[in-house]
């Protein structure tokens, strides 16, 4: 069954294309057949000769709209906010069209000190471009509103709704369940409550089944295809709220909090107000979908390029490791990736072969287990290069938090609140924490790095990724932060 968000995106793209096509047809008629632009009037012109230009123009508009974030889910968002975003994109598009049509001529006249032709401003063509933009804005918004009206109608009939779990069979949870049941057009359907008192309470609350305890969340999310969780626990203790979040912040779901509880944890992490309903979204993923796809494309292209240019260095590193102690060149470990998915990471061996004969342990400053070659490889970050294979496979990204081992995650999730939230990000070859802090040597280091990781999560963008990659080059060249 197609999801509401996917159906929305398909319909909106098609409606935008139709709206822009209508505008192009009108522009063709005005220019050549209306007689309103005297120097362009030519009824012998046929539309089929210009159809390919309209196609190219429409594709350009669609790409601009993608870059402007107009194809994320707007179904439950403010119509005014969406209109303003479309207006901004259309204005940018009009400026680009004007620059392409008149820019070369303007620049040519300026270069030879020839006065500009005022006819463009007050004559035939220039004002019509803005009229074209106005019609594009009107039709794009009109078609979108019609689509959203139809989609909300489908949601009100139960088609494509998102499944929601409410944590806490409380009065606040009851109000939320009743409010969502009365407004199905929001597209949020409460499939059940989760409460620690599950074994001693009725298995139905507010006409909704009580499905289990917090420890059952992972299985319930999978079983009921849950996309969102609302925390409605009435406890005023920050520790209690954090204990609840530990069970859900590594799950691929949206996490919402009732306003009464938001004051309890206010200021500890970023939150977004959910439009049209009094809920706060925690750990909201702010990177637009188009940037996420560009990020993956960059991972593949940059990873392949880095792999090719670093191949001679990798060969020399392998020879040096082998000559030093005749041990294996590489070592592999299972690490935990996005949403807890395990994968195998590969690195150049920098420690003795018996480095963990007593079990997993933190690296320390001047760690005696690190070999002489390994110390150089760590300082220059060459030991990380084999992880390019993980980037190309999609288990890692070029930029993200450091992938951690399961044994450490199990320990740290109990000691550090929200540590597990790092699993909402794909781990990276480099990252904000890696370039701002040294290797982890203790739990305190992990706490510091978590702050950097959460900053990256809340501000994730292609620009920040570029900044991190540049700083990584600096760290590699200077050895700063290596251990």
Number of helices: 17
Rg on CA atoms, Å: 28 Å
Distance separating the two termini: 51 Å
Largest sheet: 8 strands, mixed
Tally of strands: 12
User: What is the H-and-E element order?
Assistant: HHHHHEHEEEHEHEHEEHHEEHHEHEHHH
Category from helices, strands and their pairing: alpha/beta
Strand fraction = 5-15%
Major β-sheet strand ordering: 3-4-2-1-5-6-8-7
Q: Which regions contain 5 or more consecutive residues with pLDDT less than 50?
A: 264-269
Give the overall shape.
Answer: flat
Oligomer: single chain
Question: What's the helical proportion of residues?
Answer: 40-55%
Mean pLDDT: 81
Number of domains: 3
Give an overview of the whole structure.
There is one protein chain. The protein starts with a helix and ends in a 5-residue tail after the last helix. An eight-stranded mixed sheet has the order 3-4-2-1-5-6-8-7, sandwiched between helices. It has a two-stranded antiparallel sheet with strand order 9-10. Strands 11-12 form a two-stranded parallel sheet. The longest helix has 33 residues, at 79-111. Residues 264-269 have low confidence and may be disordered. Helix content is 52%, strand content 12%. Helix 1 (4-32) packs across helix 2 and helix 11 (311-325) runs antiparallel to helix 12 (372-380). With 483 residues, the protein is of the alpha/beta class.
